[in-house]
Amino acid sequence: MASLTRLLEWVFFFYFLSHIPITLLVDLQAVLPASWYPPELLDLMKWYTVTFKDHLMMNPPPWFKSFVYCEAIVQLPFFPVAAYAFFKGGCRWIRIPAIVYSSHVATTVLPILAHLLYGDFPKTNLLESPSQQERLVLVSVYAPYLVIPLLMLLTMLFSPRYYKEEKRKKK
User: Fold this and answer.
1) CB–CB of 116/139 below 8 Å?
2) Fewer Cβ atoms within 10 Å of its own Cβ: the N or the C terminal residue of the chain?
3) What is the pLDDT at residue 128?
4) Residue 123 in 3-state DSSP?
5) pLDDT along the chain (171 residues), means of 10
6) Sequence-separated (6 or more) residues with CB below 8 Å from residue 9
7) pLDDT for the residue numbered 131
């Protein structure tokens, strides 16, 4: 069990480490002025939104923008802290913050996935409404941001490494 927990800690470490540039360079394009980004990143975003028909990133509705603002203000400062804790491994102090983070992310990604699967997509000059297969591909792009936080939540709740108190030795 300890080796599985350590493997998951490494997964969580890489998740948080990779999430820093993804948030800064990609996700925040949904809410920050385009003038803040070099043309190469804007072109990458355009390629992504057209290729995957991601209407949420191309023309984000207000509810989606609110999730991105939460990512920028609440989650982004947490990413390096969490990356450190999971890199080091066994840091019990990360348990409650990781539970809060993973619960928050899961509750924001679920409506995104529901919208991608069942929502209406306005037709634009660049994008048509995605087919069901294209919706499933788009869901697979977002799915790791639900699966990994759920794994983290389960690890923090049920791994003895994080929830059992160590017995202190009597002197």
Assistant:
1) yes
2) C
3) 77
4) coil
5) 88 97 96 95 94 91 96 97 95 96 96 92 74 92 96 93 65 56
6) 86, 87, 89, 90
7) 84
- What is the predicted pLDDT for the residue at 67? 97
| Rounded Cα distance, 78 and 76, in Å | 5
DSSP 23-47: HHHTGGGGTS-GGGS-HHHHHHHHH
Measured CA to CA, the distance from residue 81 to residue 118 in angstroms comes to: 36
Q: Which DSSP symbol is given to 93?
A: G
- The Cα diameter of the chain in Å comes to 75
Q: Which amino acid appears at position 152 of this protein?
A: M
